[in-house]
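Tokens as discussed.
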């Protein structure tokens, strides 16, 4: 479902900032490679308006100005959740960008960011340092603190879970009842068909017996006539 965890905190949306080092165009997506100075690069997938898709291969790790210039004539890019347009024309290799989106995995092991919002970091390195300062404060104040639910919230969630379980059990019972009724209906239909077949088979046997008797009688009559003509 695109939800990951940091300790016991569910993570759905993330924000990153860094230098765009590559931009690669695919038929249905554009893949940006972001270096956020963490020691690893992140592939940022931007969907095109002609349909959602994931990248069909890894992004190039070297800047390509020709690809960036060609992107001006590319189809419109959109957010994967809201389908709102995204302007990523300024996001070319060498640009310092602030990106927000949801996490996904490519081939089960490569982490990607599905782009939802984007902007350029105005102010260069100072803007990036301010972002890093906000990120560190958020990590200390929110992510490093245990996520604990209040007793009222726990009670509400347990009630919802019990209700969902009861609803599931009721649905299973309904499915079983429907299955039993279907089997009973099929058995009734089978008995009706078998009964009609037996009636028709009996009628055919009686008709066949009448035809056989008529044939025997005809042969007997013909035999007598042949004997009389011989005399």
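Sequence:
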């Amino acid at each position: 479902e695109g939800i990951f965890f940091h300790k016991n905190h569910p993570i759905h949306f993330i924000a990153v900032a860094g230098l765009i080092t590559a931009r690669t165009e695919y038929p249905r997506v554009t893949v940006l490679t972001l270096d956020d100075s963490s020691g690893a690069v992140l592939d940022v997938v931007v969907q095109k308006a002609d349909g959602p898709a994931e990248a069909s291969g890894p992004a190039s790790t070297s800047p390509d100005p020709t690809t960036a210039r060609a992107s001006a004539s590319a189809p419109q890019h959109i957010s994967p959740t809201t389908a709102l347009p995204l302007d990523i024309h300024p996001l070319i290799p060498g640009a310092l960008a602030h990106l927000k989106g949801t996490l996904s995995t490519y081939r089960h092991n490569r982490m990607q960011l599905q782009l939802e919002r984007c902007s350029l970091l105005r102010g260069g390195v100072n803007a990036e340092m301010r972002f890093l300062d906000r990120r560190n404060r958020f990590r200390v104040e929110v992510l490093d603190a245990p996520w604990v639910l209040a007793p009222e919230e726990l009670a509400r969630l347990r009630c919802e879970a019990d209700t969902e379980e009861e609803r599931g059990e009721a649905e299973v019972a309904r499915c079983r009842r429907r299955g039993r009724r279907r089997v009973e209906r099929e058995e009734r239909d089978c008995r009706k068909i078998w009964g009609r077949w037996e009636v028709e088979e009996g009628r055919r046997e009686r008709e066949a017996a009448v035809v056989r008797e008529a044939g025997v009688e005809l042969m007997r009559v013909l035999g007598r006539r042949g004997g009389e003509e011989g005399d």
